[in-house]
Amino acid sequence: MYEGLKLHKHVSILIHILAWLLIGAVLFLLGPLSWNTTLPVEFWYRQLTLVVVLVAFFYTNKDFFVPKLLFNGKNWLFLLVILGLCFTLMYAVEYFERLIRLPELMHEAFHPDDDKPYKPKKDYIDVFLLLVLFLAAGISTSIAAVQKWQADETLRRQLDQQRISSELSYLKAQINPHFFFNTLNNIYSLTSIDVESARIALHKLSRMMRYVLYETEKDQTLLSKEIGFIKDFIELMKLRISEKVQIELDIEDHVEDRVVAPMLLLPFVENCFKHGVSSRYPGIISIRIHTENDLLTLETSNKIVPKNMGSPESHQHGIGLSNTKRRLSLLYHKKHELLIDDQNAENEYRVTLKINLA
Asked: What Pfam families would the database entry show (predicted)?
């Protein structure tokens, strides 16, 4: 990584050097070399001085005045400083030309047979030089603004990535321990009734834990693994619920090995069992997961049943449903659609999630 940054820095410096060589050649060499006359050496001193002045003005503005004044909201002060510098540099260059007698020497070079004495101009205004200075100020300001925008965008993406990672870690920590404890108790009870079922359930629980510990460390996982995790979760939840609860599943068995962010679907499935299961009331939980081309669709619905206020679930908020919404907005911005309907005549909680995995 360090070598890459070092190479990038060297390439950037080389680009700046080549750009200034091109600008200097076009502005200060191309025209004079096409003139059909012998120019005094003082003219080339003046051209070299102009290049040095432009380079110094360009980087002083880009690296000092723009960050210190313009980016701090001192717009009028920045404008006054730049205008003042442009006129000051123009006067300084004009004074330098007169100091080395360049106007007189140029007159002699272009009018060698003119017997009339050279009459110097009375003012110090050089419109061409002033426009070049304005151009340098505009370009350096634009480059500084673009670099700041790029740096801000890079920082924003880094912060978003850190936020996603921290939210995923929080999501993992939020996985309902009550679910795991009850599942282990149910498996323990099964050992005295149906050893084979207890063995299968324990295997499913271990697969879930392996997914949580290892797959969620990655930014993406295979959709087949995510769906497998959902299926294991549902099978283990069946050990806890009574026969009053009907579960309707329509989960695609064979999906293409597309990639998806880990643990995006589970919070919506877990929410069905959190709000749709009661020991006193009948309920129906419907879960549908399908893919078509690049579109992943999750549809869930469950009856909203009142909770026993003394149960652990009544004081919990699922395994990060709000965090999952935030992760969706960060990871699949403008590539997902989430619809939640909890205000309907059937007293059902319905979720439709569509994600474009392209």
From this structure: His_kinase (PF06580)
**Stretches in the chain below the pLDDT threshold 70:** 1-38, 103, 106-124, 164-179, 182, 279, 307-320
pLDDT of residue 37: 66
Q: How far is CA 307 from the centre of its chain?
A: 41
Answer yes or no: pTM beyond 0.70: no
Residues of the chain with CATH 3.30.565.10: 175-356
pLDDT at 5: 46
pLDDT of residue 352: 93
Q: pLDDT tens, 155-201?
A: 887 777 777 666 666 655 555 565 677 678 878 877 887 788 888 88
- Asked if 354 contacts 336 with a C-beta cutoff of 8 angstroms, the reply is yes
